[in-house]
Write a structure and sequence with these properties.
Blueprint lengths: L1 H8 L3 H31 L21 H11 L1
Length: 76
């Protein structure tokens, strides 16, 4: 346990910050940029139609036959 503490104390913080900026920042920046470009070009295609999506609803009941019809009516 103390060996890890000595490694942390002896760490060159400037070098650690440099490597964090060198490797981590571009990774997140490029992935965000690529997803943004995909979203822009996907929505700008001519003739692209929107699809009506269906929704499934699960209604758990136990001996609830009398209240099932009003529940389905309110969901519609």
């Amino acid at each position: 346990m103390f060996a890890m503490l000595y490694v942390i104390v002896d760490t060159n913080w400037l070098l650690l910050a440099f490597f964090a900026l060198m490797f981590d920042l571009p990774r997140y920046t490029f992935s965000l940029l690529s997803w943004s470009l995909v979203g822009i070009f996907r929505n700008s295609r001519p003739g692209d139609r929107r699809v009506q999506a269906a929704v499934s609803v699960i209604i758990p009941t136990f001996n609830g036959g009398s209240g099932l019809a009003p529940t389905i009516a309110s969901l519609r």
